[in-house]
Amino acid sequence: MTARSRLPTVLVVDDELRSQEALRRTLEEDFEVFTAASAEQAQRIMETEWVQIIVCDQRMPETTGVEFLKSVRSRWPDTLRIILSGYTDAADIIAGVNEAGIYQYLMKPWQPEQLLLTLQTAARVYRLQQENQRLSVELRTAEPVLARRVEIKHERAKRELALDGLVRTPDSPLNAVCHLVEKLAPFDLSVLISGESGTGKEMLARAIHYCSRRADKAFVVENCGALPDQLLEAELFGYKRGAFTGAYEDRIGRFQQADGGTLFLDEIGDTSPAFQVKLLRVLQEGEFRPLGAARPHSVDIRVVAATHHDLEADVRAGAFREDLYYRLATVTLHVPALRERAMDIPLLAGRLLEASQKLLGKAVDGFTTEALACLAAYRWPGNVRELQNEILRMLALCESPCLGADLLAPRILRSPAVDQQDDRLLDLIAVDGGLKERMEALEARVLKETMIRSRWNKSRAASELGLSRVGLRNKLLRYGLERA
Predict the structure, then answer these.
(1) DSSP-assigned letter for residue 163
(2) Eight-state DSSP code of residue 394
(3) Mean of pLDDT over the chain
(4) What radius of gyration, in Å, describes the C-alpha atoms of the chain?
(5) CA 206 to CA 68: how far, in whole Å?
(6) Helix H segments across 185-271?
(7) How far apart are CA 34 and CA 352, in angstroms?
């Protein structure tokens, strides 16, 4: 399509040829111009061309411009209609506006600049009308499509973030926790989740939300341990403009955002006694007052709290309010540490690797058996978060199709536990013998770790350990570490 064919189209209807030519010369730089000497000729052009604007003379031999534009309005209602006349007859003007839906009524003699400006504005109006109609149609047809998309996303969230999203094996200790969630989630009971940092307390809270009757409402998270009291209060309750220095506009708090849904208060055990009093009042009364507001707001929310502290011990020590504890802990759940669910690590590592590949944009086939055994043997003091970081690190460093044990951090390779498939080595480490036996177990562990780091390159490992290649091979054979 040429640049000229994309110009707005104008049909000039005038029985005077000199007037036609004058209008054409004025408009042809900015418009594609058609001309007609009569209403009949103009109608034939309308039937074959896409006309956006008509400029029509009022006085013509067979008919008036208003009469002709009335018929145009009935057949081509989107076309903008302009009357050009040398007579100031009020009746004509009124009829043109009321009957023909005239966009503009211009008087002769016309000024080129004024005429051009009027038609350029008319072309923009035409484009906006078409865009408005298109969007209206799209919105009408898109409503069921959008509703279905929202429904699909809700279903996906329930599937991925509910209990099925918690990775575990059939004999995992996490199953008992999930069983309790399945039974208790449908009821609007406050829940307190305990567990070490990085164990997945927030994931369990999300599972509670998506297993409840509030699943189609908001799940809102606030980390109570990350903010001082004043900022935490502003985050949770919101504030009005001018409530304090820096409050330049109204802000909705987490409680209001979670209305109808679930509010997850992470690290609740890190809050101060002063803030605990304010939080208790909100939970008791079911309403809160934004900072600087004159009236309180009522909310309908379910509160799920989490902590890595032993809150019962904190209550006994006076560090946490007893009344707030019992308000939060209608139901208590404990998320086991990753070291307590070693059977889940291979499955969990696989799931985390999938997510890591999407994050880094790098694909591998998976883990070697040796790498999975080392991951399962480590105690993971940082729990799932530490495992996720280790997998990201391995993936970033990997130059082969699979993630091998040689990519693991030294602290993992040097951990007390080793490859569980190596029964001979397990026997040596578990022995309660004398110094010789224990030294042999330690030697076997060092040999294993060094061989993994050196990717089973005997020359490199022997050099690192200060052994000859033959001496290293003999030790590997002695401890059953020689690869076939």
Answers:
(1) G
(2) H
(3) 85
(4) 39
(5) 67
(6) 201-210, 229-237, 254-257
(7) 66
**Most confidently modeled range among 103-112, 201-210, 232-241, 414-423:** 201-210
170 cis-preceded (ω within 30 degrees of 0) = no
CA distance 266 to 123: 58
306 CB neighbour count, 10 Å cutoff: 26
What pLDDT is attached to residue 65? 85
Is the pLDDT reported for residue 423 higher than 50? Answer: no
How far apart are the C-alpha atoms of 321 and 228, rounded to whole Å?
A: 18
Tens of pLDDT, residue by residue over 13-40, are 998 888 899 999 999 889 999 999 998 8
Residue 161 and residue 210 in contact, taking contact as beta carbons nearer than 8 Å:
yes
Token couple for 429: 């480490």
57 phi, psi to nearest 5 deg: -70, 145
Percent of the chain with pLDDT over 90: 45
β strands within 72-215, DSSP E: 80-85, 104-107, 191-194
**What whole-number distance in Å separates Cα of residue 104 and Cα of residue 74?**
18
pLDDT score recorded for residue 95: 67
